[in-house]
Amino acid sequence: MGTLVTLHLPPGSPVADLPWIITIGPLDDDEGWEPLVCGPYERPHALALAQAVVADEDLMAVVEPLLPLADSEAIRAEVELAKSGGEPGADELSAETFDRDEPRRTTPGRPPTKAEVRAGFARIAAKLTAAG
After folding, report:
1. Mean pLDDT, the chain, as a whole number?
2. Closest by alpha carbon to 65, among 36, 23, 103?
3. Domain range for 85
4. How far apart are the first and last CA of the chain?
5. Are 87 and 13 in contact (CB under 8 A)?
6. How confident is the model over 44-77, as pLDDT tens digits?
7. Using CA atoms, how far apart are residues 50 and 111, in angstroms rounded to an integer?
8. What is the pairing mode between strands 3-6 and 59-65?
9. CB neighbours of 130 closer than 8 A, spacing ≥ 6?
10. Number of structural domains, the chain?
């Protein structure tokens, strides 16, 4: 059985509405293959897909938000924040958003159908192109 790692978000967190990516890799770093990154997905789809992939295999899936940064200055600001030990998007989020000290069980539900994932892609594209 594999491992699924994600952020625990408080109800109503704005991070939940961001696009999410899945990084799937070996549980053991000595396996010799590079992790696969896929997405973006809506958060519930990402969680369900990741769970379905790692359920019966010795894999690790990391489900995390994708920051849709539109220019190099925004990226540099996030790099500086990361270097300083801050959390990405911390200016918009409370400290409780990144509660990483307690492991949480996630119940992602059934994997979405191809049509549901494609509909999610369309919603993400609309959000990203509408963002200022």
Report:
1. 83
2. 23
3. 3-130
4. 42
5. no
6. 999 999 999 999 999 999 999 998 888 899 899 9
7. 9
8. parallel
9. none
10. 1
